């Protein structure tokens, strides 16, 4: 720690007792939305969560779980499990995603990091390939970040650069691709004037090439692989500007769905296939549409499509796209370094801690909760239990997942009276919600609700306190909607399923026999978010939170 007078000791809360068992339950992908047939939480039988909402109004409220509340750049950024658990555990808001990349580029720190040093080893003999969305939309990537990266890489020894562009038209206006290509071509021409062999090598529309998500259609990734790695595509052009202009002339063409193309030299040979010894960077900062290409670039064992040729490359993401899968293994910008998390404080103040989930979210309730830090703070005070997730199936096949097992382990931990805090993540709403299977997601929500009941019953038995909340939305809205909120239909008149997270707020409920009378949610923190939960939990353990934490959500009124 910086200053020598730092102390881990937390001040006692003036009105709340110590020594109560506190259960912190995180329902993954469980937001609050209007009740309709596409709100699986509403459709499902969820008597426990319903009773928390209908109980005492001063013990239930909504908190923000997306955008700036979790450190993401804009209010259009959906929350996710990594940033959500960071905020829940850290009690403060840290820059995430695009903001983190901006800071690393502005300071030049990106070029000193492990990830950059790793890809730099290919600059001498090989080509640097940059793959990503060419857009200033700011949702998945930003043109100005690509421009800075090109400049920085060339100043740091990249002699041969190939850019593989994906046109947008979804987060920006359709047709804007032409201007973005002109801007990029201008920058590359300036690099060539300085002796760097830099050009665009391939391209295609984001919904047709590379940027699929949630394993919806591996054909999208394969089309990208064929163009970027193999240098093969149905359309060949001498320049990217010509490619985009010509392909946009086709009937019904738009930026999102442009077919894959490769740029060729005068002899018809692709100018930039990816070969042994090359470096590859995927420059999108948003994870969901980079995970699949990252798997194709990184995994030795891969069976989703025939890669034909698998070059030996050095691959890094702009960020790590999946903290659970540690994918990719190398990345240019590290997650925020978060010190003094609530978990570390509480352990230092005698709070014995139990944490549990199944494999897919175990890291969230430990590693991400603890500020992107592995392991225990104090092994004699903590126990973390991971229940193996089902593997080899999609989660809609077994939508109950391991909710019952997680609840049983947690119940036993509570009843053992060995722990002062038990915290758990119930993944069902999120993992099954991502499959887009509405019936299965309804089953998933019911299973999560039953798990909550088992945990709350145990808290009742030991005279404890519960805090039930979520990390972001998903299961509460399973359909894509137009601006006025009506479900969107596809060309066959079927509803368009929404498999992603949402922008919805999430519930937080407090209660239990150990909750002191007079404790209620304050009215003066209307914009409270996930980062306010840590101070709240510290209070329930009988402590005041550190002064730089986001403020508590609760107050104690004298009855």
What does this structure look like?
It comes from Canna indica (Indian-shot). InterPro entries: Alkaline_phosphatase_core_sf, BPG-indep_PGM_N, Metalloenzyme, PGAM_B_sf, Pgm_bpd_ind. Pathway: Carbohydrate degradation; glycolysis; pyruvate from D-glyceraldehyde 3-phosphate: step 3/5. GO terms for molecular function: manganese ion binding; phosphoglycerate mutase activity. With 559 residues, the chain is α/β, with parallel strands linked by helices. It contains 16 helices and 16 strands. It has helices at 40-43, 47-54, 81-90, 98-107, 114-120, 143-155, 177-193, 218-228, 240-247, 291-298, 342-348, 359-368, 403-415, 428-433, 438-461, 533-540; strands spanning 22-27, 60-63, 128-134, 160-167, 197-205, 235-237, 261-263, 279-282, 314-317, 353-358, 382-387, 421-426, 465-470, 506-511, 519-521, 554-556. The strands form three sheets. It has a seven-stranded mixed beta sheet with strand order 2-14-13-1-12-10-11, with helices on both faces. The longest helix is centred in the C-terminal third of the chain and has 24 residues, at 438-461.
In brief, what are we looking at here?
The protein is of the alpha/beta class. It has helices at residues 40-43, 47-54, 81-90, 98-107, 114-120, 143-155, 177-193, 218-228, 240-247, 291-298, 342-348, 359-368, 403-415, 428-433, 438-461, 533-540, and strands at 22-27, 60-63, 128-134, 160-167, 197-205, 235-237, 261-263, 279-282, 314-317, 353-358, 382-387, 421-426, 465-470, 506-511, 519-521, 554-556.
């Amino acid at each position: 720690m910086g200053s020598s007078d730092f102390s881990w000791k937390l001040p006692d809360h003036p009105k709340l007792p110590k020594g109560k068992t506190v259960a912190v339950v995180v329902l993954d992908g469980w937001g609050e939305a209007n009740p309709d047939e596409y709100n699986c939480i509403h459709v499902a039988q969820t008597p426990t969560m319903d009773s928390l909402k209908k109980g005492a109004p001063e013990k239930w409220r909504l908190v923000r779980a997306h955008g700036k509340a979790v450190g993401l750049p804009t209010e259009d950024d959906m929350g996710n499990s990594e940033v959500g658990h960071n905020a829940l555990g850290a009690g403060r808001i840290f820059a995430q995603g695009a903001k983190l990349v901006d800071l690393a580029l502005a300071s030049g720190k990106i070029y000193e990091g492990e990830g950059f040093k790793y890809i730099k080893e290919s600059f001498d003999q090989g080509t640097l390939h940059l793959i990503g969305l060419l857009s200033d939309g700011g949702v998945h990537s930003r043109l100005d970040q690509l421009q800075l990266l090109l400049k920085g890489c060339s100043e740091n020894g990249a002699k041969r650069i190939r850019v593989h562009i994906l046109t947008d038209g979804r987060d920006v206006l359709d047709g804007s691709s032409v201007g973005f290509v002109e801007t990029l071509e201008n920058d590359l021409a300036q690099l060539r004037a300085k002796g760097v062999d830099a050009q665009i090598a391939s391209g295609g529309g984001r919904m047709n090439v590379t940027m699929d998500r949630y394993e919806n259609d591996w054909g999208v990734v394969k089309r990208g692989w064929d163009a970027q790695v193999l240098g093969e595509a149905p359309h060949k052009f001498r320049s990217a500007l010509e490619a985009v202009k010509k392909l946009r002339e086709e009937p019904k063409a738009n930026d999102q769905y442009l077919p894959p193309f490769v740029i060729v030299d005068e002899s018809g040979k692709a100018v930039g296939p990816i070969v042994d010894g090359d470096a590859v960077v995927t420059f999108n900062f948003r994870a969901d549409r980079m995970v699949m290409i990252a798997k194709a670039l990184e995994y030795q064992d891969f069976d989703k499509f025939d890669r034909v040729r698998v070059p030996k490359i050095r691959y890094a993401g702009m960020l790590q796209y999946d903290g659970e899968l540690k994918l990719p293994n190398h990345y240019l910008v590290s997650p925020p370094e978060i010190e003094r998390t609530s978990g570390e404080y509480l352990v230092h103040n005698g709070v014995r801690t139990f944490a549990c989930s199944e494999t897919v979210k175990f890291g969230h309730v430990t590693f991400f909760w603890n500020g992107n830090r592995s392991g225990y703070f104090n092994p004699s005070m903590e126990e973390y239990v991971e229940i193996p997730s089902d593997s080899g199936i999609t989660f809609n096949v077994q939508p109950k997942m391991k909710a019952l097992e997680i609840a049983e382990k947690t119940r036993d931990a509570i009843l053992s009276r060995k722990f002062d805090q038990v915290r758990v993540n119930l993944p069902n709403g999120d993992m099954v919600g991502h499959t887009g299977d509405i019936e299965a997601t309804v089953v998933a929500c019911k299973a999560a609700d039953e798990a909550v009941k088992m945990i709350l019953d145990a808290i009742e038995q030991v005279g404890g306190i519960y805090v039930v909340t979520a990390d972001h939305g998903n299961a509460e809205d399973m359909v894509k909607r137009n601006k006025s909120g009506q479900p969107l239909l596809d060309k066959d008149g079927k509803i368009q399923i929404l498999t992603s997270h949402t922008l919805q707020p999430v519930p937080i409920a407090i209660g239990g026999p150990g909750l002191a009378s007079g404790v209620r949610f304050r009215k003066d923190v209307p914009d409270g978010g996930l980062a306010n939960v840590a101070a709240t939990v510290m209070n329930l353990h009988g402590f005041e939170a550190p002064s730089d934490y986001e403020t508590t959500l609760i107050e104690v009124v004298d009855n």
